[in-house]
Design goal:
The chain has 691 residues and is an alpha+beta fold. The chain is 37% helix and 18% strand. The strands form five sheets. Strands 12, 13, 14, 15, 16 and 17 form a six-stranded antiparallel β-sheet that branches. The protein has a five-stranded mixed β-sheet with strand order 2-11-10-3-9, covered by helices on one side. A hairpin with a 6-residue loop joins strand 15 and strand 16. The model has no long low-confidence stretch (mean pLDDT 90). The structure holds 2-(butylsulfanyl)adenosine. 2-(butylsulfanyl)adenosine binds next to strand 3, strand 8 and strand 11.
């Protein structure tokens, strides 16, 4: 029987191997060499065929299958892993003199031994180490504290410049290190999308890369377009190397130099340093540094310096290592470029949440690749801490990042008798008196429903993907509808007709044609299907994000119960703090808002959570849920119980049928369950109960 079934699966096994290899090859050409060998359509067809086969024969799916790039694995928490070889950092300096000292010290220590240096870019990203065994990527770990890092294998697998399977010859068991970077163009597109979705943009590509590697859902990480730039190969000592003799013979000469290791890594399929130079002396090193100090702004990703290494690996032991960093390498860090320019005026910008941000408008000045005219002054405390006065010249800096920062006042230019700059007292848009709440750093305009940027911001949030998903209405079109008086709040959207839209926008030469008017109306129609939790998020209640909305929807079930809840009842919901509870309460006690909600309800939007019953196995049972689960969030497992006919209660009593315990369940609850003789079951027991 076994024999037959293995014969039966042979064609599938073969095709899976064939497809995996083909897709790997096309991926490699595309991501490493910028060449498309086939159309996107053909590529997708191959990928779909492979996915289908792997679904049909899960046991045949290769661990390094290219389908794993799309992610889907969920990281509940990131396992801590001890690095096989500690991830040292480099000594670094901003001073060319210290680079000269490093060079002459190295030369002295090495005496007559011939050697060279390598100069390469110092990427500004997140350092990770990746282990390969028998040519397969098996583990990726962040640097962490240098000794212990986080296991981010599932997320790393989604990065297309990390080969899952190596090509040609490679050591049997080794590690590569490199930096995960977020290229500027992908980073900017991602940040724009975040803003459109009403989320806070990331401050710089490095933070975004680091946040992406820590995403729980690896399919989200897959969408981020991160890149891995390999810069280092760690090999086991020759006596511990298990590679076969053929591989060793082939590799070992080459692996004796850092430049050889990089060249070998390229052959194995890694994206390596494109700008790498072997240098003989300090002049060549300085030339490389000077060149990149200017040219770095033309790179597609951020670098923050140059790394100089001794090229001959056998000399590394001779030069040794200090407590933290090797003596055979050093990093030169670029100084953040800084200029001084006169402050012309401070203007105040009102964000979609009503927060008022002061902006310095300065005499235009050239700084690190762009002309800078404006920069944020963050809030009043920022201005007072820097003691900015009228007529001052400001110091503006741009580090490895894109956004210029005001770092201080050029005191040499301070005029006698200069007065501290005043902060706005009224909203620059609607004229309302600004409010600064106790303990908060920001001023905001309280006129939520009558202040243009806030009204537009609300509309933008409402139509965004994670809310009502009315994608055909981008910010420009919303603005157009708003300025024509067709839409001033979210309920107005549901009164729109195609007739009203056709022909709009002629003045901006963005005329809405009949077809696109129809599409807009259709998208609005479809949004009526959006579930209650997203409708709740879409309302844009201050501090109520996606997660909060989900929890509120689950807890209160419908908008009326939510509207009638007291602050205490609201604050009793998981993850809802006092500030949020107060904000929801205030929102629900304004007649304008209740009127909008009534109109949305009349328009047919879901104002009630739908509990889909997928079974009744748990009918008559009451569960108390506690701790952290591996396959569900706490809210999800509660929903799951209800979907199968069970009830969920918050506290253990004689009526509790089971306590469903995850990891880290509180000891008090456990004691109580034991004292009442209530069975405590695990997530696995629970799932078994259902099947
Ligand atoms: S070599 C033992 N090369 O800079 C030498 N590091 O403090 C290992 N970095 O944590 C590092 N680009 O994350 C090396 N081309 C490069 C690099 C690089 C960026 C980072 C690395 C390390 C830090 C140095």
């Amino acid at each position: 029987m076994d024999l037959f079934s293995s014969i039966d699966t042979e064609p599938a096994r073969k095709r899976i191997a064939e497809l995996s290899e083909l897709i790997d090859k096309y991926n490699h050409e595309y991501y490493m060499n910028d060449t498309s060998l086939i159309s996107d359509y053909e590529f997708d067809a191959l990928l779909r065929e492979l996915i289908a086969l792997e679904q049909q024969y899960p046991e045949l799916a290769l661990p390094t299958s290219p389908t794993r790039r799309v992610g889907g694995e969920v990281n509940k928490s990131f396992r801590q892993v001890t690095h096989r070889f500690p991830m040292l950092s480099l000594g670094n300096t901003y001073s060319i003199e210290e680079i000269t000292e490093f060079e002459s010290r190295t030369r002295k220590l090495l005496g007559d031994t011939p050697f060279s240096y390598t100069c390469e870019l110092k990427y500004d990203g997140v350092a990770i180490g990746i282990t390969y065994k028998h040519g397969n990527m098996v583990q990726a770990v962040t640097r962490g504290n240098g000794s212990v890092g986080d296991d981010i294998t599932a997320n790393a697998r989604t990065i297309r410049t990390i080969p899952l399977k190596l090509q040609g010859v490679y050591p049997d068991d080794f590690e590569v290190r490199g930096e995960v970077v977020y290229p500027f163009d992908a980073f900017e597109a991602f940040n724009r999308q975040r803003e459109a979705d009403g989320e806070e943009p990331f401050a710089n590509p490095r933070n975004a890369a680091s946040g992406s590697l820590k995403l729980q859902d690896s399919s989200e990480c897959a969408k981020r377009k991160l890149q891995f730039c390999m810069y280092f190969m760690m090999l086991p000592d020759a006596e511990h190397d298990t590679s076969d003799t053929y591989t060793r013979d082939l590799l070992y000469g080459e692996l004796q130099t850092h430049s050889g290791r990089i060249a070998a890594a390229r052959q194995m399929g890694f994206k390596v340093q494109p700008y790498f130079k072997e240098c003989r002396d300090i002049d060549e090193i300085k030339q490389f540094i000077d060149y990149w100090d200017h040219e770095r702004w033309n790179l597609p990703y951020a670098i923050d310096g140059i790394v100089i290494k001794v090229n001959q690996v056998e000399l590394w032991d001779r030069l040794g290592t200090t407590a933290k960093s090797p003596r055979w390498a050093i990093a030169y860090k670029f100084k953040a470029e800084r200029v001084s320019t006169p402050l012309q005026e401070i203007t105040f910008q009102v964000g979609r949440t009503g927060i008022v941000t002061p902006v310095a408008n300065m005499e235009p000045v050239w700084l690190a690749g762009t002309t800078v005219r404006r920069a944020t002054l963050v809030n009043e405390d920022f201005i007072r801490n820097l003691d900015i006065r009228t007529g001052d010249h400001l110091l503006v800096e741009k580090g490895g990042e894109i956004i210029p920062k005001i770092v201080g006042v050029d005191m040499e230019q301070r005029k006698p008798g200069a007065e501290p700059v005043p902060f706005a007292t009224h909203c620059p848009v609607c004229g309302s008196r600004l409010v600064r709440a106790d303990g908060e750093a920001s001023h905001y305009c309280p006129n939520q429903d009558g202040c243009r940027p806030q009204q537009l911001g609300r509309l933008e949030l409402f139509v965004s993907r994670k809310a009502m998903n009315i994608e055909s209405l981008g910010p420009e079109r919303l603005e157009m509808l708003f300025d024509h008086g067709l839409v001033s709040n979210v309920a107005d959207l549901y009164d729109l007709t195609a007739q009203q839209l056709i022909g709009l926008g002629a003045e901006q030469s963005a005329t809405i044609q009949a077809k696109s008017a129809d599409n807009i109306i259709k998208a609005i129609e479809q949004s009526r299907e959006v579930p209650f939790e997203r409708v709740l998020y879409a309302l844009g209640i201050r501090y109520v994000g996606e997660v909060g909305a989900k929890k509120l929807a689950r807890h209160f079930r419908n908008i009326d119960a939510l509207a009638q809840a007291s602050v205490e009842e609201l604050a009793a919901v998981e993850d809802i703090g006092d500030t949020t509870a107060k904000s929801i309460y205030d929102y629900m006690h304004r007649n304008e808002h209740l009127a909008i909600i009534a109109r949305l309800k009349a328009a047919g939007l879901h104002m009630e959570a739908v509990i889909q019953q997928s079974g009744s196995q748990l009918e008559g049972l009451t569960f108390v849920v506690s701790g952290v689960f591996s396959q569900f969030s706490r809210e999800e497992i509660k929903a799951h119980i209800e979907q199968h006919g069970g009830k969920v209660s918050g506290s253990i009593s004689g009526k509790t049928s089971y306590v469903l315990a995850g990891e880290k369940m509180g000891p008090e609850k456990l004691k109580k369950a034991e004292s009442l003789g209530i069975p405590v079951i695990s997530e696995t027991d629970y799932l078994a109960m259902l099947s």
